[in-house]
Amino acid sequence: MTRKSIPFRSIQDWSFIFLILFFVLSFIDRRFGILGLVCLAVPLILALLGYGRLHCSHVCPRGSFFGKVVSRISMERKLPPFFRTLEFRYAALVLMAMCLVGNVFRFYPDLTAMANGMFQVMTASFAVGTILGIFFKPRSWCTFCPIGFSASLIKEAQDQHKIRRKSGNS
Ligand code: SF4
To answer: Could you give the CA distance from residue 51 to residue 69 in angstroms, rounded to a whole number?
Structure first.
């Protein structure tokens, strides 16, 4: 499988600043919570453009926070294997999707309430990821992160499609 060349340099050494900015702005004015959509959309767009999990390795402010900040206080223990199972990853994906879709259904067209719901999902997942990162490896959240997992599923589907196309042509 040929790899697409990477169009930009990694910003993961400092991209956690975006996450801190997001929380500060959202505390000041809850409408900034809607920016959480960027956090969801960018990884998926990059994956759909054929860059796989480029967001995870080069961009993600959350991954950057776990890697650069949480790592300083992490106990570095191994995450229990249960968190790595496909079932658990799908469950986390479905739960997050339900929270996000439920948020839209409950609050549409009230943008402030939707932004607040988005902020709550971002805060809850960030809190879980940070607690796990402290007790286990700093980037434990990434093991089952619904966004990273979705990007993997998109990549897998694209690879399968390419294989099918190739075998159809040969
Ligand atoms: S797995 Fe999730 S939290 Fe980790 S780097 Fe990827 S998108 Fe960010």
So the answer is: 26
* Sequence-ordered alpha helix ranges (H) in the chain: 16-28, 36-46, 54, 61-68, 86-107, 111-135, 146-169
Per-residue pLDDT tens over the stretch 70-85? 999 999 999 999 999 9
Per-domain residue ranges for the chain?
16-169
Q: Does residue 142 have its Cβ closer than 6 Å to ligand 1?
A: yes
Question: According to the model, what pLDDT value does residue 6 have?
Answer: 85
At residue 86, φ and ψ (nearest 5 deg) are -60, -40
CA distances from 156 to 36, 40, 100, 141 (A): 25, 19, 24, 21
C-beta of 63 in contact with ligand 1 (< 6 A) = yes
Q: What distances in angstroms separate CA 157 from CA 43, 47, 164, one per listed residue?
A: 16, 11, 11
Quickly count: other Cβ atoms within 10 Å of residue 105's Cβ: 8
Tell me if 47 CB under 6 Å of ligand 1.
Answer: no
Q: What is the pTM of this model?
A: 0.93
- The pLDDT, as a whole number, for residue 21 is 98
How close is the Cα of 88 to the center of ligand 1, in Å? 16
Residue 3 binned pLDDT confidence (cut-offs 50, 70, 90): low
